[in-house]
Amino acid sequence: MSVLDNWEQWKDFLANRLHHAQNEGMEQSTISDLAYQIGGYLAKQVNPQNDQEKVLADLWSVASPEEQHAIANMMVKLVQNDGSEGTTTTS
């Protein structure tokens, strides 16, 4: 079973990776750029596995690059306080 099969597992996976990156000292701008790159990869290479991913894929497909950055940043914010590793500060 892939983490992409279940929305909550996907969010937990992203949150844990985010917390790890932050704990290693990765800057927010780098995290934002990586989120954008991952979003682009998923949109092109991975079929959505649930309704939430389908909505994100549809939004990504019609968004400009600036809007895609905004979607990626919103996903980072969505998972920022989730997951089992570490703590984060809110903006």
Automatic annotation (TrEMBL):
Domain of life of the native organism: Bacteria
InterPro entries for this protein: DUF3243, Uncharacterised_YmfJ, YmfJ/YflH_sf
Protein name in UniProt: DUF3243 domain-containing protein
Organism: Bacillus mesophilus
